[in-house]
Amino acid sequence: SAVVTVAAVDLGASSGRVMLGRVGAGRVELTEAHRFTNEPVRVGDTLHWDILNLWHGVRTGLRAAGPVTSIGVDSWAVDYGLLDASGALLGNPVHYRDARTDGVAERVATQLGEERLYATTGLQQLPFNTLYQLVAAAGTPQLGTAHRLLLIPDLITYWLTGRIGAELTNASTTQLYDLRRRAWATDLMADAGIRTDLFPPLHEPGTRIGPVRPDLGLPGTAEVVAVGSHDTASAVVGVPATGERFAYISCGTWSLVGVELDAPVLTEASRRANFTNESGVDGTIRYLRNVMGLWLLQESLRTWGAVDLPHLLRQAAGEPAFRSVVDPDDPVFLPPGDMPARIADACRRAGEPVPATPAATVRCIIDSLALAHRRAVHQAQQLSGRNVDAVHVVGGGARNELLCQLTADACGLPVIAGPVEATALGNILMQARTAGVVGGDLPALRTVLRETQHLVRYEPRGDQAAWRAAEDRMGG
Ligand code: LFR
């Protein structure tokens, strides 16, 4: 039976990769063609993405990959590049953790109305939503000169093909997308003072975008296919679940915690709980919450310098449980910086013991993340009415045994960990389906993953009382 080789370009907040997938009926093999670091660059007051370095990594990876049937691109959400009328990029895209949006969301929400924003877009209030970034950039010469706005995967796709467009799963994270009309929310844009002509036509995952530019020197590589270009959308495709009674945690820099639904939940309770309705592939809704995620650990490691992470995690596993807990979703943790100091401050303010060693800090982070996972898994069920029997942990966090076990304990549900490369796999499976070598709907794609990927099951231990008490201490 037919087999194709496709390439997934997956750009994450700390690294980018080009993965090769060989897919046929009932099989998928994944290999890494190239991995490169993604280091944000501060110039003056502004934190930028190093987009040309990312592009360099993409090109190097695609050359190393050799001829492929198609390429699919995904990355983190909300951020964008601006093109002038000739198609040239205007400046380096600004990082969503930049301070330019401080205070903007509150102002815009008051002006436009939180209820209206939620009814139209279904989106959680995150300070860095594209809506708020564009309001923060209002009046700058760059925005004034701009002809088009492209989200990061659409920008890479443009550089690969010369085609301008907006893939829908990522467009749905901007807070400028009308989720019921499945179109740009032009009324909202106009009322927020954002030019509606910046936004290119939308297309669905699975759309064939066009051939790669001949001048890229990729002989034998045919075309770019739209995948779930929001990395979380591809990660959810890559969840090896059976049926619909599952929650997922796409666990990397962020933990994206939620369920997959057929229709959005736009109730007042949902809005107040800050749950989001992001669009998934095949018309699904990713009903989830952003939990601050392993960012807390990544920034702590950066602060400490050279440390042996496996050793530190073993030490953390030996620390007493729940000695100090913080709310990971506290906005003080959002910007880059000295995370151990911020965690110590948060403990001091909350009357929690201040972690005295890196191992104690790591235990505080993992306990607190497990608690935030518990809170979000419970809320997702309550608010959506979808009950779950298991929690799938996918992404880099699936390797973290302590976090997976404590998440199972905290949720009182089995955790099924893996695949680590769910995002690349989701990207690859969408391309393989477009190429016609795997068939069917999301459950059919997930069956291929269950049959081919290494998964680890964690059973919940202990009782829920201790977790309930610790969750109360976390506040929030
Ligand atoms: C995960 C992710 C989240 C989004 C955040 C910022 O990589 O895409 O889904 O909220 O990054 O873009």
UniProtKB/TrEMBL annotation:
The keyword Transmembrane helix does not apply. Residues 8-238 form the Carbohydrate kinase FGGY N-terminal domain. The keyword Nucleotide-binding applies. GO terms for cellular component: cytosol. Keywords: ATP-binding, Disulfide bond, Kinase, Nucleotide-binding, Rhamnose metabolism, Transferase. Pfam families: FGGY_C, FGGY_N. This is Rhamnulokinase. It comes from Micromonospora deserti. The lineage of its organism: Bacteria, Bacillati, Actinomycetota, Actinomycetes, Micromonosporales.
